[in-house]
From TrEMBL:
Keywords carried by this UniProt record: DNA-binding, Transcription, Transcription regulation
Source species: Novosphingobium album
Domain HTH araC/xylS-type as annotated: residue spans: 217-318
Top-level taxon in the UniProt lineage: Bacteria
SUPFAM superfamilies hit by this protein: Homeodomain-like
Pfam (any one): HTH_18
Name of the protein: AraC family transcriptional regulator
Amino acid sequence: MAETLFAFDKRNFRDCQTMFRGDRQQEYYRGDFWIEDASNIDVRSERKAIGAISIIRQRSRANLFFRRSRQHIREDATDLAILWFVKHGEIAFSNQCGNRTVRPGEFAITRSMTPFFIECRTDADGVHEMLHVTVPTHILRAHIRQDFSTGLFMPLERPELAIAENLLTEVFEDDGGLGEDSARLLVDAAFAVIGNAVCASEESGPARQTIADRRLHDVLRFIEVHLSDPQLSTTMVARGCGISPRYLSFLLRLKETSFSELVWEQRLAKAKAWLASSDPRDISISEIAYGVGFKSPAHFSRMFKRVFGANPREYRGECGDEGAHPQRTEAFAPICPGSALLQ
């Protein structure tokens, strides 16, 4: 459940500078924080920690101000990225690159390692509310490769950002039913879709797909869906996608592969992952072989050993052995163009 990070009213708002980072001065990073002296002061910040990440909901009836200078950065080099989702009011953000205002329906990322000044302003009803997430920058870098050192600003009209906000809100509002691992998976998913949105926004526009591109997408999807069917064939795929077998061969040449090579690689890759992640007491090698579309366990074993250098039983044993040698089993051996995958 969320915990109160700080709460200020008319009686204690002047103590905000020494209290805004929590009881042990561990949240956020150093800076100057103050609250406008107004007739109605009610500032509350609640925090939900997910590992090193904090999801914080802040509500205020007064304008708030925060400044981080180069002196603060020298004293405290904590490198945090902040993801901002504005609910009510607005955030005015200023740094050496200029001024930006983030309003409801907009999203921003800022970073603690460059000086900035932030003003959180109430709306016409005297309310300011936002959800923001503090995350070590090195964690966010795994999802967002673009530079956001001086700030990144986007509208929430992109569906990925709206979904990310909903995920983070659900994690924040969870009353303890979610386990730590599940909460972290949801937070990581939110970061991943934010990364996709940032990447897409930097592109000039969606790449125009040719008819061949669309048909190839249909073919690959059909193969993925029917991969477990041992009767999967070029005739079956061509009929299912409404194209001729000759055109199917042409599409796969665009991908620089053949039908047998593509299906072989996908089936073996899925079987390999299944062997590595399953318990022999739960599922047998024969069940895995049939599950990925091989007609017999013997054929599966021969093909698996040819590609990975070990038969399925040996590979499964190595996966459960701390002394395993993954280099022997990671790479695909070359596939012969005439190989009879679907025998």
